[in-house]
Write a structure and sequence with these properties.
Blueprint: H1 4-9, H2 30-36, H3 41-46, H4 48-62, E1 66-68, H5 75-79, E2 84-85, E3 92-93, H6 100-109, H7 112-118, H8 120-132, E4 138-144, H9 146-155, H10 163-171, H11 173-196, E5 201-206, H12 214-232, E6 238-242, H13 249-252, E7 262-265, E8 279-283, H14 292-307, E9 312-316, H15 326-337
Parallel strand pairs: 1-4, 4-5, 5-6, 6-7, 7-8, 8-9
Antiparallel strand pairs: 2-3
Helix pairs in contact: 4-8, 9-11, 10-11, 11-12, 14-15
Length: 341
């Protein structure tokens, strides 16, 4: 049977507007915080039972239409042999690539089979989650887009400027493209692992898309995203989230013909910007810090604009913020689930 998410991505009729939201398993939930008291974030990621339990918590509380596996975008780099630490809060890696020789060495060391072995905990978490989900729920796997994961590979941490990877683009566009092409290939391997383990949708996150100008993004970055989407969409739908989609809004339109089933729209763009094409989004996460009546009002605005047309999935315009009041999340979910088509 097809889930509501799968039907929406195929522009097929649904009985209700499907809903899930980014970072839905996390610190706003008291049941998550209880587990977090005894485990670090990374300990939870690499423990399949804990990862599956945390992934399912928001489904059990809100009866959402999809779960997204509890993990991190840097899990791919871990699978490629780079150790990741969250000891100081933001992620840090124990290895970076600084030049072409180091990139060649890193590429030569990469092996898809070894990545599968190193990420056994991750595939098991997906399998356990799939077993815990009913057939009418989708399971999202995810990965960072090549430009975003490339920034971490070059800088070894979350960057405020992403200046190193942008400098590669300016000084040596050919090397920049080689980097992204290699990461696209590895991302395809990574997504296929997730699909084999039970993921029926893949979301690509371009978390740092707002750091690069539109012309460069179109010429040097998008081809590597569509390389991934063309391959992965042979098996499951692909949803693309680009932070800063308002900057790249026209550039993103062609991806619908390149394997992307839907664009996840942030709150800076109207939800109907892409017309009747499949979209996901786009409530401002800050709205969930207001009050239930305001949440209901803003949620209804989005639903009245786009909710009755095929190809729509309700979501936030970015990840839910920590410490978001539960009564506001309740108001959002109930408003969507009670909306009459």
């Amino acid at each position: 049977m097809k889930t509501r998410i799968q039907k929406a991505l195929k522009m097929e009729p649904v009985d209700k507007v499907p809903i899930w939201f980014m970072r839905q398993a996390g610190r706003y939930l008291p049941e998550y915080r209880k587990i977090k008291e005894k485990n670090t974030f990374w300990e939870m990621v690499i423990n399949p039972e804990l990862a599956a339990e945390v992934t399912l918590q928001p489904i059990e509380r809100y009866n959402l239409d999809a779960a997204i596996i509890f993990s991190d975008i840097l899990t791919l780099l871990y699978g490629m042999g780079i150790n990741v630490s969250f000891e100081h809060g933001p992620p840090e890696t124990d290895r970076t690539v600084k030049n072409e020789n180091e990139l060649i060495q890193f590429k030569n060391e990469y092996n898809a089979a070894k990545m599968g072995e190193r990420l056994h905990f991750y595939t098991k978490a997906l399998q356990l989650t799939r077993k815990g989900l009913s057939d009418d729920k989708s399971l999202f796997g995810f990965a960072a887009a090549p430009y975003t994961i490339g920034s971490y590979l070059l800088e070894g941490k979350t960057s405020k400027t992403h200046s190193i990877i942008r400098a590669w683009l300016y000084s040596n566009p050919e090397l920049f493209s080689k980097l992204l092409d290699f990461l696209a290939d590895a991302t395809i391997d990574y997504c296929k692992l997730q699909i084999e383990a039970g993921a029926d949708v893949i979301q690509l996150f371009e978390s740092w898309g707002d750091s690069i100008d539109p012309l460069s993004y179109k010429k040097y970055v998008l081809p590597h995203i569509t390389k991934i989407s063309k391959e992965i969409s042979k098996t499951v739908p692909v949803v693309f989230f680009c932070r800063g989609a308002s900057i790249h809004r026209e550039n993103l339109l062609p991806v619908y013909n390149e394997g992307i089933s839907a664009i996840s729209v942030d709150w800076r763009l109207p939800i109907d910007f892409y017309g009747d094409l499949p979209v996901q989004g786009n409530l401002d996460p800050a709205c969930l810090w207001s009050d239930p009546k305001s949440v209901e009002k803003e949620t209804l605005k989005i639903l009245e604009t786009r909710g009755r047309k095929p190809g729509y999935i309700f979501n936030l315009g970015h990840g839910i913020y920590p410490e978001t009041p539960l009564e506001n999340v309740d108001a959002m979910v109930k408003t969507v689930q009670n909306f009459k088509l």
